[in-house]
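Every protein is a chain of amino acids, and every chain bends into a shape of its own. Below is the pair of lines this work produces for a single protein:
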Amino acid sequence: MFSSFKKGIIEGIKEKLPGALAHQIMLPTHRDNTFRFPEFTGEPVKSAVLLLFYPGDDGIVKFPLIQRPTYSGAHSAQISLPGGKHEENDRDLIHTALREAHEEIGIDPEVC
């Protein structure tokens, strides 16, 4: 089961990504279809997340999510993938994702 999932992912990423259409499909039902993404004019923050697929004991493909802490910011209490902001001493964004996953959920970067 996991091997067929893995094969499907490898084939799927060769396809054109759906972009804004995917976001529109996943909008909460209380929003109408006139929603438009705001134009971003600031400097983007370099960051990375880890999407770690693994076979569960029951044979079902799983991946970890976290719940962010509650605070007075935009991402308060959101459910998300482990990850975060790129730091100066990170070699690259892969290192960022692995470091953050280690900090947040204890993933050993050497195993990934």
